[in-house]
Amino acid sequence: MSDKTILICDDDEGILDMLELVLEETGYRIVPVKNSLHIYDEIEKQNPDLILLDLWMPVLSGDQVLRTLRKNPDTRALPVIVISASREGERIANEAGANSFLAKPFDLEMLVNRVNEMIAA
Amino acid sequence: MDSLNQGEFSFSNDTIKQDLSLLIQALDSSISGIILTDNQQPDNPIIYCNKSFERMTGYARHEIIGHNCRFLQKEDRNQKERLLLRKAVEDGAECVVEIRNYQKNGTLFWNELYMSPIKNEQGVVCYFIGVQNDITRRKKAEMELLHQQEIMESQIRQRTKSLKESEDYLSSIVQTVRESLVVLDPAFKVLSINDHFLKTFKVSKEETEGKLLYELGNGQWDIPKLKELLENILPTNNPVEEFEVEHDFPHIGKKLMLLNAHRIELEGQYKDRILIAIEDITDRREIERRKDDFLSIASHELKTPLTTIKGYVQIMQRLMPDSADDKFKDILRKTGIYVERLNSLIAELLDMSRIQTGNIELHKEEFDFDKAIHEAVENIQAATKTHRIIISGKATNNYAGDESHIVQVINNLLSNAVKYAPESNEVKVYLSRVSNFLKVAVTDAGMGIKIEDQKRIFDRFFRVGEIQQRFPGMGIGLYVCDQIIKNHGGTLWVESEPGKGSTFSFTLPLEERNTNER
Ligand SMILES: Cc1cc2nc3c(=O)[nH]c(=O)nc-3n(C[C@H](O)[C@H](O)[C@H](O)COP(=O)(O)O)c2cc1C
Ligand SMILES: Nc1ncnc2c1ncn2[C@@H]1O[C@H](COP(=O)(O)OP(=O)(O)OP(=O)(O)O)[C@@H](O)[C@H]1O
Ligand SMILES: [Mg+2]
């Protein structure tokens, strides 16, 4: 249905699996990244149209990743949806330059709608 | 002595007689009693008394003449004045005494007696003259005064004793409290400190008392924030409570202190002394912070698998063929509901911990209050099939506060209103403004709350007894609501009648008219 690519970066395998299942169904190509240290390589290789990014990850946290992306001219405009179970998640996401935020646990329909919107934009 | 005839002096010479009668008249008009006794006769009998003596004693002349004057003492014969009088009579000397005498009818009167001898040329005491004054009034007053004085003295003794006792008592309290106490004079010199201060700050009484606060321990108490409190804040905001001061002390390290300061305004010797109570909250803060951290991590970790579970449940719901068994559909729907419950429990737990430690952060921003409430109501309505939520009225479209917290309050109140009114089908939300407050009221027609439970439902973990078994919940919803409303400077309360229903209302202060009245 579409040739768009979505990169999902989350240290939790369960969430990666589940999101892959849902989003593949919608026809996007999914790139799961479990170790946030590899995210820059994957972005370069896969050239995603949208990133779903967790915040609390070991070693390199989501907001650090996001800040780096926003500094780099190549990725400055790359749409990023932050997904997090942290209570401060929304604030942290906004401050780091996220385009959108969804609190975990999220509603799937809401997530899919949000993804569609972002990719269409 | 025939010259004395019936109390009258009789002389042969007429002019002398005339003079004498004047004299007698004079004696009779005296207000003092006057008598003469004849010392030459046995037992010194009274040979003359004036009218005033009769009046004073209540005896008639015929009951007086011939008696020794001691009859006035009646049975009261053991007075030391009697001995004085006897001695004076024996010695033929003058004397003045105050003696208790009794009237004929038994009434006591205080007799101020002046007695003096009359001697002949040979120096023999022939007569005595006695002058009596009734000084009962004066004596009574004196006695009363004395009594009063005694009472007062004993009261003073008593008070001094109890003062001493209460002083000891107070000082033992002061020494026992687990809080540091300091008393300063108006120039910030340390007058006294308690044991706990010595222990906490590892100093001795000698190096502290009598020294200037700022100079203690090489100036380690010269803390800018403390100076600010003592010199700028306290003079105009007496007393100051819960003033936080953080300071790195050379030997004992960083301390976080909570201070109460009180300047004595009472006139008197203690005026302008300053009392400071210092609570060391260093450890407590650290523990609270760690607990919050722990709960944040725990809730994050719990929510992560929950996200996956929720996702799969939703996928199952989507993948479920229309032909699927109704029972199966229902089970899946319920699974979804309980996943949601688990999620909100985790959130509540974290909230509660933070609220309890005062770490709940308010992100105050202006927002459209009425719109936010309407949206919250719509969201709850969408998930509630059993009740119709009717919203009416207007509060404000511009309120500065933490929107997500306020929404949480309305959500909790609505979920209670629905939960605890299973037999009804309507919940009312009413928005209004009262004076410079906005007001929100949530009314249900449910089971209501007994008056004795109405206060306690705002406590943590309190749930009305009979509800425990029938409805799920932890009993923290209202506690969180109450704290949030308080943090916004408002109040939350309930009015309810068992069996009829409940109205939970809260008010929030609106910013004083700096934004133009709409
Ligand atoms: C002139 C004179 C007046 C006296 N007036 C009184 C009197 O008013 N009241 C009284 O109690 N005793 C009075 N006394 C004292 C008693 O008469 C008596 O001397 C006293 O009680 C001591 O004596 P006693 O120990 O024999 O009683 C008077 C004595 C004299 C000489
Ligand atoms: N609208 C209401 N009508 C009757 N009783 C109520 C109502 N709201 C609250 N209560 C009583 O007050 C108690 C405390 O309410 P609260 O919202 O704090 O906790 P809860 O609803 O039991 O659990 P949860 O923490 O999940 O909200 C309830 O258990 C219930 O007994
Ligand atoms: Mg509740």
Characterise this structure:
The complex is a heterodimer of chains A (121) and B (518). Chain A is of the alpha/beta class and 121 residues long. Chain A has five helices and five strands, in the order E-H-E-H-E-H-E-H-E-H. Chain A has a single domain, classed as Response regulator (Rossmann fold), CATH 3.40.50.2300. Helix content of chain A is 43%, strand content 20%. A five-stranded parallel beta sheet of chain A has the order 2-1-3-4-5, sandwiched between helices. In chain A, strand 3 (50-54), helix 3 and strand 4 form a beta-alpha-beta unit. The two termini of chain A are 17 Å apart. The model of chain A has no long low-confidence stretch (mean pLDDT 92). With 518 residues, chain B is of the alpha+beta class. Chain B is built from 15 helices and 19 strands. Residues 35, 37, 44, 68-70, 72-73, 82, 85-86, 89, 99, 101, 111, 113, 115, 128-130, 132 of chain B line the site of flavin mononucleotide.
Give a quick set of tags describing it.
heterodimer, A: 121 residues, alpha/beta, Rossmann fold, five-stranded parallel β-sheet, 5 strands, B: 518 residues, alpha+beta, Beta-Lactamase, 4 domains, five-stranded antiparallel β-sheet, 19 strands, elongated, disordered C terminus, binds flavin mononucleotide, binds adenosine-5'-triphosphate, binds magnesium ion
